[in-house]
Amino acid sequence: MKGDKVEIVIDAGDSSRTYEVVATKAGRRVEVSNRRGGVVEVSEVTRSGTAVRTARFMSSRVLALVEHPADGEPD
User: Fold this and answer.
1) What's the superkingdom here (predicted)?
2) How far apart are CA 13 and CA 16, in angstroms?
3) N or C: fewer beta carbons within 10 Å in the chain?
């Protein structure tokens, strides 16, 4: 649902970087999955299950993964 957000903090060697994946339109949601080969995949998905945007990170580099669900109030 619009407003879903996932923050990913990555170890970039000498510092850390933060990335965000946000559900940008009504009816979309953000899904997190652990894939084979040590990959964390964060996708913005439509109602029908089609991935619109996908971000992939090596799980050994992920420091934190924070999910912020939508508040459930209509826009």
Assistant:
1) Bacteria
2) 7
3) C
